Amino acid sequence: MNLLKLSLCAAVASVGLGGAAFAQSAPSVTANLAVTSNYVFRGFSQVGAYDPAVQGGVDASMGIAYAGAWASNVKYGNGTDAEVDLYGGIKPSYGGFNFDLGAIYYLYPGQPSKASLAYADENYIEFKGAVSHAAGPLTLGAAVYYSPDFTFTPGVDADGVYYEGNASFSPVENVTVSGAVGHQYIDLPGASYTTWNLGSTWQFAKNFSIDARYWDTDVTGLKAAGPRGVVTLKATYP
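User: That's the sequence. What structure does it adopt?
Assistant: Structure tokens below.
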């Protein structure tokens, strides 16, 4: 809970620092649509071991403030077939460092009701704090996500904290190589794990890109968390 309080205090302070930029900027809206060979989130497939997914979202920004919505099909084997994310926050910059302070609400329409034996308490909220710094073609970053009641923890309020270090490098124009190592802590015995990914994104046209990425975790005996390669084609507008 202390982490949550610190994040909120930092957000308030950042709004004060970035007030002038917010007042002088015009609003901007973008949309995106993607087709991926597998939807992987923090090392776990969300659509079965090898199924594809269709995803899309809308983002709005004004100065340092942003908000958006994103959706994807999922398959958990209990009737849940969609994920909808609602998010917002601020992205101030200071001294060459870019910050991202916000919150994400994960919704799963059609999840089993509390009266069902398949109920899994899927909906949850996360608070995010991230920072990155660019030095030429190299960008280094770190992020922390905190949830006071993590997903798939029915009957208990289990904290969830995800820590990540990431890096990206652009060796040539329109090509970016990126990777991340993260640890998902869940306040339940044996539930925490480590994940990593490495891949490359090629923007082959103004509004189109393709990403090829390899994912893995230290989880054993669970196909959804096993190693896999994922290819994603994405379109943005404008």
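The helical segments are 2-17, 19-24.
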